From TrEMBL:
This is DUF2849 domain-containing protein. Pfam families: DUF2849. It comes from the Bacteria.
Length: 101
């Protein structure tokens, strides 16, 4: 018996800046996890991943990450993705400092 498909988002890193980015439903890359397209169909997820991987001039390391619906958009399921969504923890600026402001 096959496993039930877990909803996914497409994530990567910005090629020039290194920031974690997420593919949105309208084909933009966003630094906000909540703006990511939540994909609930396995075939569609593979198509979106192929689309992201073809953008090698602007993104690197695109992959599918498990996510779940949340009140403000997709939420990370795994610790690694929650950590990535917060941004680098060794900076006193950027996403980490914005969350504490």
């Amino acid at each position: 018996m096959s496993r039930r498909f877990t909803p996914k988002i497409v994530t990567a890193n910005d090629l020039l800046e290194g920031d974690v980015i997420y593919l949105t439903a309208d084909d933009r890359w966003s630094r906000d996890h909540a703006e990511a397209e939540l994909i609930e169909d396995e075939a569609h997820a593979e198509i979106r991943l192929i689309h992201a991987a073809r953008q090698s001039g602007s993104v690197v390391g695109a992959y599918l990450a498990d996510a779940r619906p949340g009140p403000s958009g997709p939420e990370p399921v795994h610790f690694r993705e929650a950590f990535r969504a917060k941004g680098p923890s060794n900076y006193t600026h950027g996403k980490q400092s914005e969350r504490h402001a």
